[in-house]
Amino acid sequence: MTDAELVRQTLAGRNQAYAELIQRWAGRVSALCHARVGCAAAADDLAQDALVQGFAQLWSLTDPQKFGPWLCRIAMNHCTNYHKAKERTVVPLSTLEANGTGQDRWAWEPAEAAPEAPPDELERLRREVAALPEIYRDVVRLFYHEKLSYRALAELLGVSAATVNARLTKARSMLRERMSQCRP
Question: Per CATH, the architecture of 3-84 is what?
Answer without folding.
Answer: Orthogonal Bundle (1.10)
